[in-house]
Amino acid sequence: MPHSITTPDHLCEMAAALLARNDFCLRLLTQSWLRTRPHFRAVAAPDTTDPRMLVAAAALVELLAERGGQPPPAWTATIDSLPEPFFAVAWAERPGFTRDLCLNESPEPLRLHNIFAPPNFLMMA
């Protein structure tokens, strides 16, 4: 039966890793969470006043919920997007193939929050 041990602190760590573009840390945190077979609808919003952290957390939960075939938690619908485009991979900051790939094929849950990543972002987490 799915459950979730993810605490708001864990979700904040994941969001912070995304915003820091720390792919290795984000993958480790995501893998550890996914091993618990989380029930995404039950994931609590992170306890932070940092709007960037809230956006990143919502985008991550929505992405993982979609890939897990589950609905996201209701709180994510109340979270807007980042004011400026954010590229989850540093090399997409510069014009070129990777930037175009991220802009055109970023997973929808990320793109809706103005976060851009390759289409396979966190697939092997």
Explain what you see:
The chain is mainly alpha-helical and 125 residues long. The N terminus is likely disordered. It has a two-stranded parallel ribbon with strand order 1-2. It is globular. It is 43% helix and 3% strand. Helix 1 runs antiparallel to helix 2 and helix 1 packs across helix 3. The chain has one domain. The longest helix has 17 residues.
- Give the helix tally: 5
Q: What class, by secondary structure content?
A: mainly alpha
> Please, what is the oligomeric state?
single chain
Helicity, as a percent range = 40-55%
Count every beta strand, where a strand is a DSSP E run of 2 or more residues: 2
Brief sketch in words of this structure:
Helix content is 43%, strand content 3%. It contains 5 helices and 2 strands.
List strands and helices in order, with pairings:
Layout: H1 8-19, H2 23-34, H3 51-67, E1 86-87, H4 97-105, H5 108-111, E2 115-116
Parallel strand pairs: 1-2
Helix pairs in contact: 1-2, 1-3
